[in-house]
Design goal:
The protein has 280 residues and is an alpha+beta fold. Helix content is 32%, strand content 21%.
Amino acid sequence: MKPKPVKIKPPSWLKRWALGKFDLSASSGDELVDRLRAAQRKNVIAPNSLSMMEGVLQVDQLKVRDIMIPRSHIQFVFHDDKYHDILNRVLESGHSRYPVLDDNLDDVEGVLLAKDLLKYVGREDEFDMDDILRPAIVVPEGQKLESLLAHFRRSRNHMAVVVDEYSGTAGLVTIEDVLEQIVGEIDDEHDHIDDKLDIRKHGDGRFTVLAGTEISVFNQYFKTSLPDSAFDTVGGVVTNEFGKIPKQHDELMIEEIKFRVLRSDSRRIQLLEVQTAEAA
């Protein structure tokens, strides 16, 4: 006798919305996604809605470690930094929140909001970090994203410090990182965006590149020579080098450029992180 298939239960709000539209019963996550895509092909749901639904289902399977900003990429300030040193860091990186350290990355004392620095404009001598330091949320790297998102909503915080099994700082995660798994990449006002190139330069020396970017455009931007005879897009070249459809966070080197998969599905790569040898 075959075992009874396990029903995959989508989030309650999604189920309530879709029950009247199409059959949600499925014996696997892949089957449920296939049914959602079939509904989209029949124009029951819009393409953007399908993308977000797939993102919701993906969030249910991901953990904090899958999307966190790694330790080496964290932008931080020290507790004893001078006002103007902190201000310069904010202007350079363009972030709105910073972990505040005592001595090293394993000694996070709290979180600094860049907007709180404004109260000291014109009276910088009165700057007191303890007066504006906010408590830091600490989460384990194995926590599920669905649980983390609920935590963010309850606490009204937008950033958490991620720790490993030894209580050392493993990375950083923001509410934006979680939401991007559902709605896709969220443009930040401090990101440098070239609408023609689909390449975004970040303040910490990283680039995000849409996988559909033409190879000729990529080569011109990064001064590289990726082959363009067999493939038209960067995603095609990277997929060929992997020899399969890579998963999120898979990495490889091509021409001294590090490629990291930020987002992909069962059919193709969608978004890549690029780090050049100079930035590394």
